């Protein structure tokens, strides 16, 4: 079967094929556009690539074209919490009389042929792999099949990874932690002096060498209301974090955040107890997870996760007796430790940064508690 593909359509297909399969870009659905393809990769230097097949006949139309790009990217920035979004605008049908001008955060490139794609002063200088992009010698129909098959394989692999992350999993440790906290509260009621006096976060005792209190105080609660609020919060956020990040990462984030919260609380030199520091760490982990997958979590992040964190922090600052220091310490501990552990099985360049930040954060807290 022979199908005639125009020169412009072939360039579009090959560029889309390259950016999706080699540079990990994903297609974006942009309403109200025609003969345009939009691609997105928030980890790339160009977060957005737009391939425009429409004819642009003068400089005013090019300026208007860049104006449209700014409007679209403004919406993407809001959704993805991106402050700087550089766009590569590939123009496939630009009048020869139009002089290319660059807009703010928009790089315009004119492409007339696949040879233009490979030039050092063109796209090939930005994406070196384009210089050796394979050109199949088959007919047009075979070309379409090959390109489509490659893109489909790439999309299938991405879908498998997302399904692995978001698929419902059996929750174990969230329920186990709730059970342990309830059991500890029962022991508090039966043996108040033995349990509370020996396990509560006492800054003087901690500085004297009873470091275990940084950990054990996470399982104590002042009363049944305190226990109820914390366990409900753990039930709600714990299931989400354990499901998305996995059991091992969930536990590590929980305990690292709890200890970070205890350390920051120690700086206030007052007695403290409760699981809220660790729970705020889970909120922090969910916040980082939502940011990492912000293409999917954009509205949830703004409307649900952030408001819950802010309201709970506000409550801690306005109601006497609530240890806001533990909440803040745990929140940042959760964000940093989640960054260090990573949010999926994919390679994540931020993990090393997260590990360094986590260790620095822990080191600063230890220094402020024990050495000042």
SSE map:
Blueprint: H1 7-21, E1 26-28, E2 36-40, E3 48-52, H2 59-80, E4 87-91, E5 106-110, H3 114-118, H4 123-126, H5 140-166, H6 173-190, H7 192-199, H8 203-207, H9 213-216, H10 224-245, H11 247-266, H12 276-292, H13 294-318, H14 324-341, H15 350-370
Parallel strand pairs: 3-4, 4-5
Antiparallel strand pairs: 1-2, 2-3
How would you summarize this macromolecular structure in one to three sentences?
The protein has 372 residues and is an alpha/beta fold. The chain has helices at residues 7-21, 59-80, 114-118, 123-126, 140-166, 173-190, 192-199, 203-207, 213-216, 224-245, 247-266, 276-292, 294-318, 324-341, 350-370; strands spanning 26-28, 36-40, 48-52, 87-91, 106-110. It has a 5-stranded mixed beta sheet, sandwiched between helices.
Description:
The protein is of the alpha/beta class and 372 residues long. It has two domains: 7-165; 168-370, Rhomboid-like (Rhomboid-like fold). It has helices at 7-21, 59-80, 114-118, 123-126, 140-166, 173-190, 192-199, 203-207, 213-216, 224-245, 247-266, 276-292, 294-318, 324-341, 350-370; strands at residues 26-28, 36-40, 48-52, 87-91, 106-110. The chain has a five-stranded mixed beta sheet, with helices on both faces. Strand 3, helix 2 (59-80) and strand 4 (87-91) form a beta-alpha-beta unit.
CATH class of the largest domain reads: Mainly Alpha
The H/E string reads HEEEHEEHHHHHHHHHHHHH
Count the beta strands. Answer: 5
CATH architecture of the largest domain: Up-down Bundle
Specify Rg, calculated over alpha carbons: 27 Å
CATH topology of the largest domain: Rhomboid-like fold
Overall mean pLDDT: 84
What can be said about the biggest beta sheet?
5 strands, mixed
Oligomer: single chain
CATH superfamily of the largest domain: Rhomboid-like
Helix content percent band: 55-70%
Low-pLDDT stretches: none
Q: What is the strand content?
A: 5-15%
Structural class: alpha/beta
Number of helix segments? 15
Order of adjacent strands in the largest pleated sheet: 1-2-3-4-5
- Domains, number: 2
Distance between the termini: 79 Å
